[in-house]
């Protein structure tokens, strides 16, 4: 059995793939639905608000995509890191790690299938969720320009590649899935804090996470994302190299 097929089977038989697609597709369908009927839900809850009145502006098309992005880049991101950690922690089960290492010439041949298959599943789940949100937004709130949505999806995928690379690096320098998840999430949480300084934030990978919401809302144009996209590409490559060095270190 090839290592590529092994990773595909691991993704499906452990139901990690099911978790990914369920989360992203669920958010894709309920995001625009929530945006469309939020005022109605607040009216239904009016009797429980002790006289308080909450009025929100009528939902517009980009609100549907914004709801999807907010959920996908919060809860969805946690699920993504957990799934990626489970695949990329080569030595989470020491006996399995030792068995596989003795049957490959290079640790890169062991790491590459896990990186590609994991990112492929995550990227496909995110894309399908975004397409579902795009369709439902059109049905409930109005259409969005393909010239905004498709680049937003591409930038979101680039950010998720960075997330997978971060998890891969953490997995090779820590012990176990739980520690990998904690280190990866902590490093990702630091980005928005540092990015609060606008001069720094416009260069960080985290600015790509909201591109799918910001482009349809005309908050930024596509040129705004050139710098963070370039930084993300370079940083992702560096993190993969760090993961490879960590994986090799354990063979010494």
Automatic annotation (TrEMBL):
Organism, as annotated: Solirubrobacter phytolaccae
Name this polypeptide is given: ABC transporter permease
Residues spanning the membrane: 18-38, 68-90, 111-134, 149-171, 183-205, 225-247
Lineage, uppermost ranks: Bacteria, Bacillati, Actinomycetota, Thermoleophilia, Solirubrobacterales
Keywords for this protein: Membrane, Transmembrane, Transmembrane helix
Keyword Membrane: yes
Keyword Glycosyltransferase found: no
